[in-house]
């Protein structure tokens, strides 16, 4: 089976900046794949190359076997991209926008799917409203609808929930998950790591134009051993425990421990120092811990 | 070639023109009529360019063609720079639209807007004078070729410019002088030799002269020669624009 997205030794330079430096990545059909990284890591550059918005300086990218440069018509038909920026054409209504986007993709009679999309994304009431009059969240919904108007088998979401309220996030993720269950491949970039952890089966992490981690979400989570202890104290943390601190807000500390048995040792140190615990909670490592760990190692 | 993609992009451009018709159609017609009123009032009794032809009648074809050319340029250039600056050009760039279809849609929309404004100016100007229509086919030919050439130049300017200021510079320092100094208001035979010679390097002069020939059957230059110049310029401009679009210059980074 052809990979949904195949990235081979892709390079992209902007002057002396190596935005992408030999990236290899294969996303299989039907995957919900996460692409994570700090700002400037190269995520959007990679998506722009995949979508044909930018041309690579080296290497090849294909969508379901279609090269994005030499077979751009086929590759773009197979791809739906939700851009990161909140862009819209101020001349048109929501329905006009979706009809035009259908036409760009060569679809003449697409009204039934346009209506279904607007229904799924709670846009039906706004169908005849000019884009300028929509709130930011509504504009984001239209962007999602535009990306899906030609029913692409591969969907790319470039930080789709940035600045979006909880209700829209839930509506959107339900719909995207339904599409994924129906066989659509989803490539997601986001700064909301809890979203990536909940949704993505596999994750790649980019840093300075290179992939520094690529594995299933489960394996990445398992790569961080131990647990986290969050404690609120009546006094300062004893100095002997300071090396275990990974976060400190006021008198609340987050400690990284190698295993559950180490909790008793921490409590013993606190008793010895005469410090009382006001609140305490144990946590499993999450994707944020993995992210910080991976980015810190590089 | 994907006909529906091309047609949709063309339709989008025309829909945009219609939605802001006051700015894209009515305003340029009004501006041309103001020119006509002022110049015909001032010069009607003093100037006779062609024997037996009233100055106002002489002026109308020039003003019509100037409106066609300026609006053809404005259509593609302003649409592209607006789309670039607001970022919505991404919707076209993400779609499976080839550079040939992209070019054809923007240029055809420019031609249609140019002709619509030109027709509006012509019809409104008929209340001032009635120029004859000797060779309607020459009129249509020069109107279409001229607007296509300026529409193509508008595509290049819209792609090249990164801000409205740069596009305004292109319009005010290149397009406006070339159209004003092209014989819209006069015959080049009334100019000193130096300026006559210089006018012959201005492609817009040939568009105006050939267009006016269709009305009066009289021109400063053979209409066939004008046709060659305008057709040649259009071919060169088309080649240059397609080459730019193919490389993705300033559109696909």
Tags for this model:
heterodimer; A: 298 residues; alpha/beta; Rossmann fold; 2 domains; 6-stranded mixed sheet; 4-stranded antiparallel sheet; 10 helices; B: 253 residues; mainly alpha; 76% helix
Q: How many beta-strand elements of chain B? A: 0
Identify the overall geometry of chain B: globular
Count of the separate structural domains of chain A? 2
Task: List segments of chain A where confidence is low: pLDDT < 50 over at least 5 consecutive residues.
Answer: none
Could you characterize the architecture of this molecule?
The complex is a heterodimer of chains A (298) and B (253). Chain A is α/β, with parallel strands linked by helices and 298 residues long. Chain A has 2 domains: 5-222, Rossmann fold, CATH 3.40.50.300; 227-285, no CATH class. Helix content of chain A is 34%, strand content 29%. In chain A, the strands form 3 sheets. Chain A has a 6-stranded mixed sheet, with helices on both faces. In chain A, a hairpin with a 2-residue loop joins strand 4 and strand 5. Chain A is globular. With 253 residues, chain B is mostly helical. Chain B has one domain (3-247). Chain B has 10 helices and no strands. Chain B has helices at residues 3-19, 21-43, 55-86, 89-93, 99-125, 136-160, 164-180, 193-199, 203-216, 223-247. The longest helix of chain B is centred in the N-terminal third of the chain and has 32 residues, at 55-86. Chain B is globular. The model of chain B has no long low-confidence stretch (mean pLDDT 93). The interface between A and B is medium-sized, with 32 and 28 residues.
Summarize the structure.
Chain A is of the alpha/beta class and 298 residues long. Chain A is built from 10 helices and 14 strands.
Write the layout of secondary structure elements.
The complex is a heterodimer of chains A (298) and B (253).
Chain A: E1 5-14, E2 17-27, E3 32-36, H1 43-51, E4 58-63, E5 66-67, H2 72-77, E6 79-82, H3 94-104, H4 111-120, H5 136-148, E7 154-158, H6 166-181, E8 185-189, H7 193-199, E9 202-207, E10 210-216, H8 217-222, E11 227-233, E12 245-249, E13 252-257, H9 262-273, E14 277-283, H10 287-297
Parallel strand pairs in A: 3-8, 3-9, 6-7, 7-8
Antiparallel strand pairs in A: 1-2, 1-4, 4-5, 9-10, 11-13, 11-14, 12-13
Chain B: H1 3-19, H2 21-43, H3 55-86, H4 89-93, H5 99-125, H6 136-160, H7 164-180, H8 193-199, H9 203-216, H10 223-247
């Amino acid at each position: 089976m052809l990979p949904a997205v195949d990235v081979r030794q892709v390079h992209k330079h902007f002057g002396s900046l190596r935005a992408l430096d030999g990236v290899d990545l294969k996303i299989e059909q039907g995957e919900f794949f996460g692409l994570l990284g700090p700002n400037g890591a190269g995520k959007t550059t990679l998506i722009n190359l995949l979508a044909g918005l930018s041309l690579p300086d080296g290497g090849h990218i294909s969508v379901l076997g279609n090269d994005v440069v030499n077979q751009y018509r086929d590759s773009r038909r197979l791809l739906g991209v939700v851009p990161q920026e909140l862009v819209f054409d101020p001349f048109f209504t929501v329905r006009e926008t979706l009809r035009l986007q259908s036409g760009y993709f060569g679809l003449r009679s697409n009204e039934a799917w346009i209506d279904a999309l607007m229904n799924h994304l709670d846009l039906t009431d706004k169908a005849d409203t000019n884009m300028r009059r929509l709130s930011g969240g509504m504009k984001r919904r239209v962007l999602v609808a535009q990306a899906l108007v030609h029913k692409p088998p591969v969907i790319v979401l470039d930080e789709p929930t940035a600045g979006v309220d909880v209700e829209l996030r839930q509506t959107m993720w339900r719909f995207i998950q339904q599409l994924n269950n129906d066989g659509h491949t989803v490539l997601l970039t986001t700064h909301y790591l809890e979203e990536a952890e909940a949704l993505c089966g596999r994750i790649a992490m980019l840093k300075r134009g290179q992939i520094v981690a690529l594995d299933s979400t489960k394996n990445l989570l398992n790569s961080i051993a131990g647990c986290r202890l969050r404690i609120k104290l009546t006094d300062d943390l004893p100095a002997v425990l300071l090396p275990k601190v990974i976060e400190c807000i006021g008198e609340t500390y987050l400690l990284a421990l190698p295993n559950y048995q180490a909790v008793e040792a921490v409590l013993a140190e606190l008793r010895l120092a005469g410090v009382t615990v006001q609140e305490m909670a144990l946590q499993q490592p999450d994707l944020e811990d993995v992210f910080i760990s991976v980015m810190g190692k590089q | 070639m994907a006909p529906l993609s091309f047609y949709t992009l063309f339709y989008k451009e025309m829909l945009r023109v219609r939605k802001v018709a006051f700015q894209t159609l009515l305003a340029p017609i009004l501006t041309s009529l103001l020119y006509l009123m002022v110049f015909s009032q001032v010069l009607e009794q003093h100037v006779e360019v062609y024997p037996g032809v009233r100055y106002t009648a002489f002026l109308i074809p020039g003003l019509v063609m100037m409106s066609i050319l300026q609006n053809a340029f404005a259509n593609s250039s302003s649409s592209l720079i607006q789309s670039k600056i607001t970022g919505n050009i991404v919707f076209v760039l993400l779609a499976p639209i080839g550079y040939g279809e992209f070019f054809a849609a923007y240029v055809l929309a420019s031609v249609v807007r140019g002709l619509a404004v030109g027709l509006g100016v012509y019809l409104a100007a008929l209340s001032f004078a009635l120029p004859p229509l000797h060779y309607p086919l020459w009129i249509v030919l020069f109107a279409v070729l001229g607007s296509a050439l300026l529409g193509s130049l508008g595509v290049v300017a819209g792609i090249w410019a990164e801000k409205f200021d740069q596009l305004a510079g292109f319009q005010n320092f290149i397009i406006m002088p070339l159209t004003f100094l092209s014989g819209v208001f006069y015959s080049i035979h009334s100019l000193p030799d130096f300026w006559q010679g210089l006018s012959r390097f201005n492609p817009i002069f040939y568009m105006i002269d050939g267009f006016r020939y269709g009305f009066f059957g009289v021109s400063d230059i053979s209409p066939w020669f004008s046709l060659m110049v305008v057709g040649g310029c259009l071919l060169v401009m088309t080649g240059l624009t397609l080459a730019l679009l193919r490389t993705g210059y300033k559109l696909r980074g």
